[in-house]
Recover the amino acids of this structure.
């Protein structure tokens, strides 16, 4: 499994370092406009507008959450119905077995519960998290991505990727430095 | 990211007043209001006493827009944000209908015994009403009404006055030091919520003086916020095509306002369900008649309509992101919400007066249009009288920086 010293690991991509959120945002926009599709931005905090800048328009989580919410609501309502009307009917203060008004809070809560868990879990799953190893952490300066530095990666698997041309392109975006990152 | 050229938010371009477009919108709404006024006049002579029921319903609907505007305006002064930069002048114009609404309150004030059982001589023989008379009596009712209008009027007057000064002052005097909006709005909102709670009890809940619900005031506030957001989106959809609103009411701003309408839909529904749940579970003889009248018999279908058309349909539609970003589409949901607000207020007030199978009355809608005539006249006039965008708000550029 281990590489012999002679075999160089495959190239993951190029990583450009910026010292401001605006610099990263502008660079990301230009990379998208230049036609790069396999790009990733790293910053210590969420940047307003990054979603549009990087061309992220995946809307899967919303659909998952909606379905989960409906399922949660129906589960809770159905279960309460089954318990109170079919499986174990109890006379509570002369109220009808099918007391839908009192089913509302639990149905509401399970809607939220299912939806919220689905949102978090599907977010993690779609992001491929948790991810103990990622090539970009091979770059020595990358530790500062969680402090005060902003990074733009263009992956080698991008159809437009060409080591020299892409390096020149990134260097033209006024980064602090551009480094090649191995897999 | 600078998606807009710097002159996109150029102050001179934003301070333009689209008087002509607003004039057109004004005359269109006045035409509809005029038809309503004629119908209401007919109704006044045909139906006599039931006219006051419709009048109260229509009055509560329109003042909910006036007061909702005041509340949302103060919330925005505290929170900031791009959504309010598009809505600010609409809400300010909404609050300037207050003197009119004070005037239109007079028919209610002069017909207390028609609308409120506690104001009739027979109330003295009713043990419970006798006990409640310390609060529910005509002089105290009038005093509270005067106080309400004084409080709302004071808040609306100052916020509008300062806003005008902001537009007219030399630029160097305007800056983040202009904190008076916030300093007034923070305590103002507290007083506002308390006064609306009492107003809801006085003007709406006491039509059925035996019944009470402690959540009723906030339920009304939720409804006001919902109606105000819907109204804002309808107005915005009409203005967004023209300068200067086209520069400010960007899809992101419409999105935010629509999200707020969704939030108010949920808030209103949450309060409504809370009231139902508490009253229904307790099943107390002095509380439950409210729902017995409404959840069965002729009002049952109205209850179902409210559930489906004031909550379910707007809620599901407003979950859809693309819909929320398009003013001419979200406008349709907003119109549905506004119509359902009238139905909801009728559902709240109507069963007290209508026992023999009648529910919604054409007169309710006619009087809503009729009161809409002067309300909208004052509103459009106020809106056209000042720049449509608070471009000189010191937070304006900051708020708009990231909207697209």
């Amino acid at each position: 499994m281990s590489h012999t010293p002679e075999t160089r690991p495959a190239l993951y991509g190029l990583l450009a370092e910026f010292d401001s959120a605006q610099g990263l945002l502008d660079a990301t926009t230009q990379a998208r406009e230049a036609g790069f599709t396999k790009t990733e931005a790293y910053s210590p905090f969420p940047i307003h507008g990054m979603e549009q800048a990087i061309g992220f328009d995946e809307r899967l989580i919303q659909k998952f959450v909606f379905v989960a919410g409906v399922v949660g609501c129906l589960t809770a309502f159905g279960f309460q119905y089954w318990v109170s009307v079919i499986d174990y009917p109890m006379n509570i203060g002369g109220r009808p077995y099918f007391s839908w008004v009192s089913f509302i809070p639990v149905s509401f809560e399970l809607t939220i519960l299912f939806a919220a868990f689905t949102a978090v879990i599907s977010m993690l799953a779609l992001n491929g998290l948790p991810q103990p190893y990622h090539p970009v952490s091979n770059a020595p300066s990358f530790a500062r991505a969680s402090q005060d530095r902003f990074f733009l990666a263009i992956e080698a698997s991008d159809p437009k990727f060409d080591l020299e041309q892409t390096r020149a392109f990134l260097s033209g975006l006024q980064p602090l430095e551009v480094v090649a990152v191995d897999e | 990211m600078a998606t807009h050229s710097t002159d996109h938010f150029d102050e001179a371009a934003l301070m333009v007043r689209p008087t002509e477009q607003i004039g057109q919108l004004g005359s269109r709404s006045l035409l509809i209001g005029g038809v309503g006024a004629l119908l209401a006049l007919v109704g006044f002579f045909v139906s006599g006493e039931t006219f006051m029921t419709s009048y109260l319903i229509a009055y509560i609907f329109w003042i909910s827009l006036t007061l909702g505007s005041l509340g949302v305006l103060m919330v925005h002064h505290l929170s900031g944000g791009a959504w309010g930069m598009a809505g600010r002048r609409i809400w300010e114009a909404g609050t300037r209908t207050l003197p009119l609404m004070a005037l239109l309150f007079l028919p209610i004030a002069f017909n207390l015994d028609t609308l409120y059982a506690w104001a009739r001589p027979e109330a003295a023989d009713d043990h419970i009403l006798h006990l409640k008379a310390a609060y529910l009596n005509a002089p105290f009712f009038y005093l509270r009404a005067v106080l309400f209008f004084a409080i709302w009027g004071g808040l609306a007057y100052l916020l509008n006055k300062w806003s005008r000064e902001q537009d007219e002052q030399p630029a160097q005097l305007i800056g983040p030091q202009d904190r008076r909006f916030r300093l007034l709005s923070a305590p103002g909102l507290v007083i506002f919520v308390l006064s609306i709670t009492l107003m809801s009890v006085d003007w709406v809940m006491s039509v059925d003086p035996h019944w009470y619900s402690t959540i009723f005031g906030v339920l009304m506030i939720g409804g006001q916020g919902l109606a105000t957001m819907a109204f804002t989106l309808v107005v915005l959809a009409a203005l967004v095509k023209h300068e200067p609103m086209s520069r400010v009411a960007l899809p992101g701003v419409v999105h935010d306002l629509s999200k707020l309408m969704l939030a108010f839909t949920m808030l209103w529904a949450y309060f409504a369900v809370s009231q139902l749940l508490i009253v229904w579970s307790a099943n107390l003889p002095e509380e439950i008649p409210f729902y017995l009248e409404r959840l069965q018999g002729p009002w049952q279908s109205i209850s179902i309509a409210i559930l489906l058309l004031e909550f379910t349909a707007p809620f599901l539609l407003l979950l859809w992101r693309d819909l929320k970003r398009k003013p001419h589409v979200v406008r349709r949901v907003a119109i549905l919400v506004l119509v359902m607000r009238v139905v909801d207020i009728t559902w709240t007030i109507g069963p007290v007066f209508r026992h023999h199978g009648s529910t919604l009355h054409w007169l309710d809608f006619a009087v809503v249009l009729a009161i809409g005539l002067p309300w909208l006249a004052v509103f459009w006039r106020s809106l056209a009288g000042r720049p449509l965008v608070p471009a000189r708000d010191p937070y304006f550029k900051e708020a708009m920086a990231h909207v697209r």
Q: What stands out?
A: The radius of gyration of chain B is 22 Å. Chain B has one domain: 8-400. The CA atoms of residues 58 and 365 of chain B lie 8 Å apart.
